[in-house]
Amino acid sequence: MIANEETFRRLMIKAQGGDKLCYSSLLVECEKWLRRYCARKINPAAIDDLVQETLISLHRKRASYDPARAFLPWLAAIGRYRWIDSLRKIYRHEHDQLYEEMVADPQDGDVTAKVSLERLFGMIPPKQAEVISLVKIEGLSIIEAAAKTGQSESLVKVNIHRGLKKMSALIESE
Amino acid sequence: MSGVANNLIENLVEDLEPVRTLKPKSGLAIVGGITLIAVIAVATTLGVRNDLMLGMADEMFFLRSGVLLMLGCATAITVVNMARPGVGKLSRGWVWALITAALFPLTAAIMSAINMPPVEALRPMEGLKCLTVSGMAALAIGSGLTLWLRQGAPTSPERAGWLIGLASGALGAMAYNIHCPFNDIYYVGLWFTIPVIISAVFGRLVVPHLIRW
């Protein structure tokens, strides 16, 4: 089970005040939440790196959390930022099984749905989302993605570039 | 949880220090402070326009000041709010201030199309002075805002770059505006627009490299 929004918020406020015990609990809970958050939207081989980079960003940018606001939308904005950053870096990787069992935590269903990576994908044109998913998440090559989608190789590259740029501008959109 | 994640969490916890939460008001105070210094610097070195000194300023002065101030404030407020990210927080209110400010160059362009102004009306030498002073003020304001934003976590460095450029360009031009004695729409539409555009482009090109995290 993963902590709920109010627990996250309280732990974070304590952590901003320097409470190490609360911070440790917060990071453990964030690690679990982020694993589910990223599931199916990044290659499994890259999940560990992405979660760890997001935790490091959380640590470095903890002063940017506003205690008067909800915690998960803040964490999700950081998660989305790091996710798009990692998609830009990953080009080719092994075809791993995606972690199908990893789904968003049902107890925070409403919040998670609003801040999800799927929703961000839904904000860009389907052709761009499709090639990003094929190349950056499933690990297909540009040639394979072009054959599968019927787009030319250069169009696949352009659509990946444009899609990532568009998602990057929409990180804080619901 | 993996051993690597455990180690990382232990290290982060070990490194924890209390932090003061980032307040957008402090960013606005920096912008306001530098703008005020720029206004005072313009007033003391170049002087305040005569009609303003006599308490009979032209209506164009108020229109121009108000629009530049509105654009500068709307974009600066958006920038300081970008320091504290959150899904659902995307703000586009500044676009309306930009559209309003665009009325000046648009009107100047329409008027020029109807009745081409003589080159003298554009006053190139005075215009270049306007550009230089506004640009220097914009650089100071933009630098302060960029340094402040580095503490935060803006999720769209490119947008932040545009907005910092727009905010500092508008406020820099607003600072010079208290000296500038010209009121015709051709001059205002050209020489008060160019510094804002140059500053916005400069912000877009330079700022993202400085605020990425």
Give a brief rundown of this model.
The complex is a heterodimer of chains A (174) and B (213). In chain A, 67% of the residues lie in helices and 0% in strands.
- Major sheet attributes of chain A: none
- Share of residues in helices of chain A: 55-70%
- Distance from N terminus to C terminus of chain B (CA atoms, Å) equals 26 Å
Q: Are there runs of chain A of 5+ residues with pLDDT below 50, and where?
A: 92-106
Report the radius of gyration of chain A as a whole number of Å.
Answer: 17 Å
Which chains have the largest interface? A-B, 44 and 34 residues
Shape of chain B: elongated
Mean pLDDT of chain B: 93
Q: How is the quaternary structure best described? A: heterodimer
Describe what this molecule looks like in 3D.
- The complex is a heterodimer of chains A (174) and B (213).
- Chain A contains nine helices and no strands.
- In chain A, 67% of the residues lie in helices and 0% in strands.
- The model of chain A is unreliable at 92-106 (pLDDT under 50).
- Chain A has one domain.
- With 174 residues, chain A is mainly α.
- Chain A starts with a helix and ends in a 5-residue tail after the last helix.
- Chain B has 213 residues and is mostly helical.
- Chain B has one domain (24-211).
- Chain B has eleven helices and no strands.
- The model of chain B has no long low-confidence stretch (mean pLDDT 93).
Produce the secondary structure layout.
The complex is a heterodimer of chains A (174) and B (213).
Chain A (H helix, E strand, L loop, with lengths): L4 H12 L3 H19 L5 H17 L11 H18 L19 H7 L1 H6 L3 H12 L4 H8 L3 H17 L5
Helix pairs in contact in A: 1-2, 2-3, 2-4, 3-4, 7-8, 7-9, 8-9
Chain B lengths: L2 H12 L9 H22 L4 H4 L5 H24 L11 H8 L1 H12 L4 H4 L1 H26 L7 H21 L7 H7 L2 H18 L2
Helix pairs in contact in B: 2-4, 2-8, 2-9, 4-5, 4-9, 6-10, 8-9, 8-11, 9-11
